[in-house]
C-alpha cells in the first residue's frame, strides 16, 4: 500500500477553490478523485493534460448512498485515500427573518452534513491505515458573524466544531483534521453573490487589511500545507484563516485606510 502514489479526494472540485485545490494537489503528486453536483470534466481534463491522474463523479454530497458509492469507487480505483478536502458548499445571503426553514436546512445539509458523511466514509479507511489528513473548507463566517447569513454562518461554525471534534477523536489514530477559513475569494460563488446585489468589490477590499480578495490559489496552498504530513504533521484541530487579516483587524475604516 505504501508504495503506491498518494490519493486525495476533493468535493466541489468542478470550479472555484475546489478546482484549484484538485489541480494543485495533482501537481504535488496526488492521484485525485472529485465529487461535485456538476460533472467535473474540465478539472479532470486540466489535470490529465499536465500528466496527472484524476477521475470525476457527479453526485450530491448530502446523499448518504451517493457518498458511499463514491467512496467504494475511489477505493476500488486507488486502494488508498490519504487526503480528504471537504470543499463543496453553498452560500445563502438572506435576512434571518426572511430565511425559510427549508433554505436553512439545505445550507446545513450541504455545508455541514455533507462533510460529516464524507469524513465518515473516508475517515474509516484512514483510521484503518492509521494515517490521513482531512481539511474542511469553513470560512471566516465560521469564526465571526456576518449579517444576513444565519444559515451559512451557523453551518460554518458547526464545521469548525466538527473539525475540532474529529481532531480530538482521530488524532490518536494518525488522522489529522483541520479547517481553512477563507475570507472573500474571487470565484463563481462571489460572482453569483455580487450579481444578487449583496455587496461590491470595494466593500470587501476596504475591509481587508491586505486590500484585496483572496485568489483560489491562496486557499489551495493553505489546504496543500495541511494535506502534507511532512509540512504540517503535528498540526491537528487547527483553523487556518486565509483572509488577508480580516478577522484580526478591529480597526475602524478611516484608520485602516490611512495605513494603505
Ligand atoms: N468564495 C468565497 O468567498 C468563499 C469564502 C469562504 C469560504 N468559501 C467556501 O469555499 C468552498 C468553495 O467555495 P467556492 O467559492 O469555490 O464556491 P463555488 O460555488 O464556486 O464552487 C462550489 C462547488 O461545490 C459544488 N457543490 C455545491 N453543492 C454541492 C453538493 N450538494 N454536492 C456536491 N457538490 C456541490 C458546486 O457544484 C461547485 O462546483 C465553499 O464551502 C464555500 O462556502 C468560499
Q: How would you summarize what this structure contains?
A:
The protein is built from ten helices and seven strands.
Overview of the molecule:
By secondary structure, the chain is an alpha/beta fold. It has a single domain, classed as NAD(P)-binding Rossmann-like Domain (Rossmann fold). Helices cover 47% and strands 15% of the residues. It contains 10 helices and 7 strands. The protein has a 7-stranded parallel beta sheet, sandwiched between helices. Helix 1 packs parallel to helix 2, helix 1 packs across helix 8 and helix 4 packs parallel to helix 5. The longest helix has 29 residues. It is globular, with a radius of gyration of 18 Å. The chain starts with 6 loop residues before the first strand and ends with a helix. The model has no long low-confidence stretch (mean pLDDT 97). The structure holds nicotinamide-adenine-dinucleotide. Nicotinamide-adenine-dinucleotide binds next to helix 1, strand 2, helix 4 and helix 6.
Distance between termini?
52 Å
Give the total of domains: 1
Strand order of the largest sheet: 3-2-1-4-5-6-7
CATH H-level superfamily title: NAD(P)-binding Rossmann-like Domain
Helix content: 40-55%
Secondary-structure element order, N to C: EHEHEHEHEHEHHHHEH
Evaluate the radius of gyration. 18 Å
Q: Any ligands, ions or cofactors bound here, and which?
A: nicotinamide-adenine-dinucleotide
Q: Any low-confidence stretches, pLDDT <50, length ≥5?
A: none
Write the CATH fold name: Rossmann fold
Number of strands: 7
CATH architecture call = 3-Layer(aba) Sandwich
Rounded average pLDDT: 97
Overall body shape: globular
How can the largest sheet be summarized?
7 strands, parallel
Number of helices: 10
Amino acid at each position: 500500500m505504501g508504495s503506491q502514489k498518494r490519493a486525495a479526494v476533493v468535493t466541489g472540485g468542478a470550479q472555484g477553490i475546489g478546482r484549484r485545490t484538485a489541480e494543485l494537489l495533482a501537481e504535488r503528486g496526488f492521484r485525485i478523485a472529485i465529487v461535485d453536483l456538476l460533472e467535473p470534466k474540465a478539472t479532470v481534463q486540466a489535470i490529465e493534460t499536465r500528466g496527472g491522474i484524476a477521475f470525476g463523479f457527479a453526485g450530491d454530497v448530502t446523499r448518504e448512498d451517493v457518498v458511499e458509492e463514491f467512496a467504494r469507487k475511489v477505493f476500488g480505483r486507488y486502494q488508498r485515500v490519504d487526503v480528504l478536502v471537504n470543499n463543496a458548499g453553498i452560500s445563502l445571503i438572506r435576512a434571518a427573518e426572511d430565511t425559510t426553514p427549508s433554505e436553512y436546512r439545505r445550507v446545513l445539509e450541504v455545508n455541514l452534513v455533507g462533510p460529516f458523511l464524507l469524513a465518515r466514509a473516508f475517515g474509516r479507511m484512514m483510521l484503518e491505515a492509521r494515517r490521513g489528513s482531512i481539511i474542511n473548507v469553513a470560512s471566516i463566517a465560521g469564526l465571526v458573524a456576518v449579517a444576513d447569513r444565519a444559515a451559512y454562518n451557523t453551518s460554518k461554525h458547526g464545521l469548525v466544531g466538527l473539525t475540532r471534534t474529529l481532531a480530538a477523536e482521530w488524532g490518536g489514530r494518525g488522522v489529522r483534521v483541520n479547517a481553512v477559513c477563507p475570507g472573500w475569494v474571487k470565484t463563481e460563488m462571489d460572482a453569483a453573490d455580487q450579481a444578487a446585489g449583496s455587496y461590491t468589490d470595494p466593500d470587501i477590499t476596504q475591509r481587508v487589511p491586505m486590500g484585496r480578495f483572496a485568489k483560489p490559489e491562496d486557499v489551495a496552498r493553505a489546504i496543500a500545507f495541511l494535506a502534507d504530513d511532512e509540512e504540517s504533521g503535528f498540526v491537528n484541530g487547527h483553523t487556518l484563516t486565509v483572509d488577508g487579516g480580516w478577522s484580526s483587524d478591529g480597526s475602524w475604516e478611516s484608520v485602516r485606510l490611512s495605513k494603505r
